[in-house]
Specification:
Blueprint: H1 10-23, E1 30-41, E2 48-53, E3 58-63, H2 65-68, E4 80-90, E5 95-105, H3 110-124, E6 142-147, H4 152-164, E7 169-174, H5 182-196, E8 201-206, H6 220-228, E9 233-237, H7 245-249, E10 252-253, H8 257-264, H9 268-302, H10 304-307, H11 309-352, H12 354-359, E11 364-367, E12 370-371, E13 383-388, E14 391-396, E15 400-403, E16 406-409
Parallel strand pairs: 3-5, 6-7, 6-8, 8-9, 9-10
Antiparallel strand pairs: 1-2, 1-4, 2-3, 4-5, 11-12, 11-13, 13-14, 15-16
Length: 412
């Protein structure tokens, strides 16, 4: 079977096919349009794996870490893209695939997609919630600024602060506002103010520019540092129509750096005018009150009580003494009347008392049931008590009873 033919291994075959694909200039630097499916992000390795498809075909694709780390957005299933890369063969599996060096969304810009993706992510974490927003101080003593020291934005901010609120100290932390090192410098500056409480309020921003120029303020690290800052942060990035992630994370968004300076500073002239008005009002109120109390004092002094205080006291003393005498007489009369009534009652009780009768030589017979009022209750041999004026003696009936008019036999 093998006579006259060269026999090769699978590895040799795959190597040959790969060599042919890699050497074909038509298969290098291809711009391929397709829809992402089966997307997998290997976070540990940093590689991105996916398939690209259209209505009739599909091809596997991979984007290695050194290329993927430069993407401005995160690919997703269903996203239509234009990928730039090359076709080659993965020798181990014998599978040809598309190796992506760069990709862009098909239609919508990569930066726009990256912006919306990060905005949705941070919003889902509650980073933009109104409940997290800190109020700005009414009268800041120290105003911090994080921006470029050479930009026009700083010049505008300083001029407005000097005009509106010259009483405040201004602290500048100069940083780069674009470029690869800018996010790290801005985060470091914000953390400095937050940790050291070096200002009462903080302005973070820059002047206008393209979306690429402003992209530093769409950095996730910058947004998180702004949200975590312990002092109020006002974002001031670009022009009024420019929106960045930093604007949503800040406690307050200013449409421009100049507007930020006005938002953090009260108007010194207006405050002086207000103080002057309040002083005038206070003087007027105090003067009115003094006049009112002066009139009341004059009225009090002209009162007879203050002119002849002893006379007024004597009037009340005499009235008190008269009232006291009337009350004393009334009480004595009542007591005398009650005393007379009491004496009359005592006399009546004494007249009716059995003891009075006994004192006149009479006696009272009684037994355990009470007073004996009839001779019929004195049976022969009955014991009873006889009470005299000076005591009681026990007696025994002998069977004979004397009536008032003669002697009679005791009934049996």
């Amino acid at each position: 079977m093998s006579s006259g033919f060269e026999i090769i291994t699978v590895s040799q075959l795959n190597y040959y096919v790969r060599s042919q694909l890699d050497s074909d200039p038509m298969l290098r630097n291809i711009f391929l349009r397709g829809e992402i499916s089966n997307f997998t992000n290997h976070y540990r390795s940093g590689h991105l794996y996916m398939s690209l498809k259209d209505e009739n075909a599909v091809i596997k694709a991979v984007m290695f870490k050194n290329s993927a780390q430069h993407l401005k957005f995160m690919p997703q299933n269903g996203m239509k893209i234009i990928a730039m890369g090359r076709v080659s063969l993965y020798e181990r599996d014998g599978q040809y695939q598309f190796y992506i060096d760069d990709m862009q969304p098909d239609g919508v810009g990569a930066l726009h997609i990256a912006f919306e993706q990060l905005k949705a992510k941070l919003a889902s974490e509650g980073l933009f919630d109104e409940s997290r927003k800190k109020p700005l101080p009414a009268f800041p003593e120290r105003i911090g600024i994080v921006t470029s020291e050479t930009g026009a934005a700083l010049h505008d901010i300083l001029n407005i602060l000097k005009r509106r609120w010259p009483l405040a100290s201004v602290l500048l932390y100069p940083v780069l506002v674009q470029g690869e090192q800018a996010p790290e410098q801005i985060c470091k500056a914000i953390n400095y103010f937050s940790k050291n409480k070096a200002a009462d309020v903080l302005i973070v921003g820059r002047g206008g520019g393209s979306i690429e120029d402003l992209w530093t303020f769409n950095d996730e690290c910058v947004a998180r540092c702004i949200a975590a800052c312990s002092i109020p942060v006002v974002s001031a990035v670009g022009h009024e129509t420019d929106f960045t992630i930093a604007d949503f994370a800040a406690d307050l968004r200013a449409p421009t750096p100049s507007a930020a300076a006005e938002l953090v500073s009260p108007d010194y002239v207006t405050i002086l005018s207000r103080i002057s008005y309040l002083k005038s009002e206070l003087d007027r109120i105090i003067k009115h009150k003094l006049e009112e109390y002066e009139i009341r004092l004059d009225n009090a002094i002209s009162n007879p009580v203050f002119k002849e205080p002893l006379s007024a006291i004597n009037v009340h003393r005499i009235k008190f003494e008269e009232t006291y005498a009337e009350l004393n007489n009334a009480v004595n009369n009542i007591l005398q009347k009650k005393k007379t009534e009491f004496s009359s009652l005592v006399s009546s009780l004494e007249a009716l008392s059995p003891l009075k009768v006994l004192c006149r030589g009479y006696a009272m017979a009684s037994d355990d049931h009470g007073v004996i009022t009839s001779i019929k209750k004195l049976k022969p041999g009955k014991q009873f008590n006889l009470t005299l004026k000076d005591g009681t003696v026990e007696c025994l009936a002998n069977g004979e009873v004397m009536q008032q008019k003669g002697r009679v036999d005791n009934e049996k």
